[in-house]
Amino acid sequence: MRDFLPDDVRRREYVIGIIKRVYERYGFEPLETPAVENIETLLGKYGEEGNQLIFKILKRGEHEGTGQADLALRYDLTVPLARVVAQYQSKLPRMFKRYQIQPVWRADRPARGRFREFYQCDVDSLGSTSAAVEAELCAAMSDALMELGFNDFVIRINHRELLTAILTRAGVAAHQQNDALIALDKLDKVGPQGVDGELANRGIEEQARNALLQVFLRDANEADGLTRVAAFVGGDETGQRAVANLQAIVGLTAQTNAAGKVRFDPSLARGLSYYTGAIMEINVADLAGSLGGGGRYDNLVGMFLGQDIPACGFSLGLERILVVMNERNMFPPTLATTPADVMIATFDASGAGAAMGVAATLRQAGLRVLVFPDAEKIGKQIKYADSRGIPFVALLGEDEIKAGTVTVKNLSAQTQATYDQSAAGAAILEGLKRRG
Amino acid sequence: MRDFLPDDVRRREYVIGIIKRVYERYGFEPLETPAVENIETLLGKYGEEGNQLIFKILKRGEHEGTGQADLALRYDLTVPLARVVAQYQSKLPRMFKRYQIQPVWRADRPARGRFREFYQCDVDSLGSTSAAVEAELCAAMSDALMELGFNDFVIRINHRELLTAILTRAGVAAHQQNDALIALDKLDKVGPQGVDGELANRGIEEQARNALLQVFLRDANEADGLTRVAAFVGGDETGQRAVANLQAIVGLTAQTNAAGKVRFDPSLARGLSYYTGAIMEINVADLAGSLGGGGRYDNLVGMFLGQDIPACGFSLGLERILVVMNERNMFPPTLATTPADVMIATFDASGAGAAMGVAATLRQAGLRVLVFPDAEKIGKQIKYADSRGIPFVALLGEDEIKAGTVTVKNLSAQTQATYDQSAAGAAILEGLKRRG
């Protein structure tokens, strides 16, 4: 787990700020849940591997010695949402659209862009099965990424029920379909031969393997894979309903900023088991793994409520977005990297009171002001301001204090001028504007 | 631990936003540390009671069965800061001023404004022993509280070394001084007789008890308690140095927004053991307990670094601030309480594509837009918008879609008008402005 020093925090806050504003323009409302959940809420929701990766908290007090855990750290933001929807059903609107930007914890082996504590930026729409829900999620993701400066992303889309129909049509028995999906999900990583080997290991017959690889090995330039796959699943009713759903979603996104970004990909499977309908994932060329992903999960809330509520969500991976933005140098030059706009320096301890007063005046003008706290040699103080990248130093000597003035030094231009203390703020703001 | 539904999050974000801006005007930079620390980092830093209240995390994998804990949840923001300063010393400036606004966890019994997960808003200055540091902290707290709308707070101030001098002068032996402080800290809660009894229980002689109560029982209208206490400690050098330090701090704050808010209180002790100099606490009349507190702790970083770095900090209690602001109704009416400015309603499913396009246009204009996802009866859709407090509904019927227009309904004024789709955004913004 990592510490975030000031420049890291500023970059993260910049990205979170943009994502929040976009989510709010789509009518999503903020929700926050505690870092800690009852352990039963989390266990069994993320598969066997997930159970292993949950951080578990020891019982307190006299029970501590038993070594038992009753609480656990949040593992994602979707299961807590399902709990909240079940718990506050009467206080929440019939169609609840929420965003949630909070850290989650997984006892995973760290890797590039993967940490044991990381932020998720989730949006979820509950209460409707309409294709407009998926389309709006794609549009919101596109808006967020485009406002961050991404233009080269692709939103891959597929459908869980279409996958089932393909597998059935290819002759994979129902009890082998999960295994087959796990193997097929690795197509990008291990290639067709690797997948074929893994399918064989999992006991899938040769004929079925060949049929599957033919469907999943799309031509990158294929204009309309969906039509081809629809033909493959033929008269399978569930499959055709899934095809129609995907067509509706893609059609609706054409009216939004996601136009041209959404691409059908029959090999997209997504790891989590709770998806029931459309699934989506965002990729850019220079990052293995995705910038985010999501899908429809109409049964998860039912695990808490005893009554299903349709739901569809999307999660952006903040750390991965930051990795790519850092590498591509995508942060605006206006993002603050200094602790202050101006530092106040005094010649001796008797100037401290005047420094407080001038600092208050400059802050009132909207400036970020650092008061150098000790009466060190003035040259040393100016050097300190320079080393911190602070562009202006306001000097308070005996003359200035007597006259109610302040001498403002522009460190990069190496110029200085003396102002009335009440006028110095405007002069510094003007100087900052000229520096751009 | 609590969930924060949308209105709760908005109120908290409002308060955090103001506090952040004020901290940044004082040259504090943002820092964030992980929720989880190594257990050794935390144990032994908060006293025996603190150790009990730390949430401990089970070892993972094969060690899980041992019941041993190797990690723990952050208990405050000061100890992680000390760790960071020791760990990144070469990357941090000589005088590091940071703010940190993150949740901490304590396995405490919940009470009004006290929770097991709560946010702290900390500012700390490292690297200087100047009284200007304390004065600026008082000024920053005052600015933050005043911008939030508080005007009736008092910043009580005292000094750990002055307390020691008073106890010594009263005849309390060195090994009894901690006990005496714990008893005296309850003066506000249990009154002078209660404190006297507790002092007696802890073996403090009657003469010392009488002397102590005389010093600590200040007259509420006393103009200059510091002079009286300074006279009591007499020639004690440490005591007189503490008095001079307090005078310097109070004198400097007179030049800031904290003028008149800072009041010497000899009975202020503060619980934490790591304080070494000035200590401060903020109170308002309608809250038992404080809105925040802090002080100087010149030795804590040394516990991690092996070399002392002077430090002084202040922590605002976000949950208590929120409790009082909710009770006093201090939130601005402009704070959003609705999911959207406008909701788009369509008459049937064929309008969904047009709805996406109009939503994109309205969002581009800066509006928060909800698209009603299902083709329910139009009256039902409008009712839904009204129930959510959404002020405008944009209707897209067959005629509107054909003509490239949209009919905008103002739900409170019960008026409606039809606009070109490209002009509707400006009209709705104008309508929102008129509503105020």
Write the layout of secondary structure elements.
2 copies of one chain form a homodimer.
Chain A: H1 6-25, E1 29-30, E2 36-38, H2 39-42, H3 47-53, E3 56-58, E4 69-73, H4 78-87, E5 96-105, E6 117-126, H5 131-148, E7 154-159, H6 160-170, H7 177-184, H8 187-201, H9 206-216, H10 225-233, H11 237-253, E8 262-264, E9 278-283, E10 292-296, H12 302-305, E11 311-317, H13 318-328, E12 342-346, H14 352-364, E13 369-371, H15 378-387, E14 392-396, H16 398-403, E15 405-410, E16 415-420, H17 421-435
Parallel strand pairs in A: 1-5, 7-8, 12-13, 12-14
Antiparallel strand pairs in A: 2-4, 3-4, 5-6, 6-11, 7-9, 9-10, 10-11, 14-15, 15-16
Helix pairs in contact in A: 1-5, 5-11, 6-11, 7-8, 8-9, 14-17
